[in-house]
Design a protein that fits this description.
130 residues; alpha+beta; Trna Endonuclease, Chain: A, domain 1; five-stranded mixed sheet; two-stranded antiparallel ribbon; globular; disordered N terminus
């Protein structure tokens, strides 16, 4: 049986019977669980979906809704929420959806992070410690 090649050569990983698209994403999940255990994180959701544009019909054609599915929606111990996406190499489509997300949901901080040299950093190369 042939397997479909991975889009960005990620290594799919399973933790707690949850399949993650990359090892880095699973490691961030483990980090969130640890933060939840010590009270830094109140709650987190996997694969939260945000509607960027509702579907519609025009001249008999159906246009599907456009959504952004992040990796995590995190609520800290003070009730503040943030959206976290673990990225390796953002695609042009993900950059476009990010721009629309930032415009539509300005109240929700969106962090694109990656694991580099055993530290989490945002896409600007700054250490991400949330």
């Amino acid at each position: 049986m042939q397997h479909k090649p991975l889009k960005y050569k990620n290594k799919k990983t399973i933790v707690d019977d949850i399949k993650f698209d990359s090892q880095a994403e699973s490691l961030y999940y483990v980090r969130l669980k640890a933060q939840q255990k010590i009270g830094l994180v109140r709650h987190f959701t996997l694969q939260p979906k945000f509607i960027l544009q509702d579907g519609f019909k025009i001249r008999g054609e159906t246009v599907r809704q456009i959504s952004y599915i992040a990796d995590f929606l995190v609520t800290d111990n003070q009730g503040n929420q943030r959206v976290v996406d673990v990225k390796g190499f953002p695609s042009p489509m993900s950059k476009l959806k990010r721009a629309i997300f930032l415009n539509k949901y300005p109240e929700l901080p969106l962090y694109w992070i990656r694991l580099k040299n055993h530290a989490w950093e945002n896409m600007k190369g700054e250490i991400f410690d949330l």
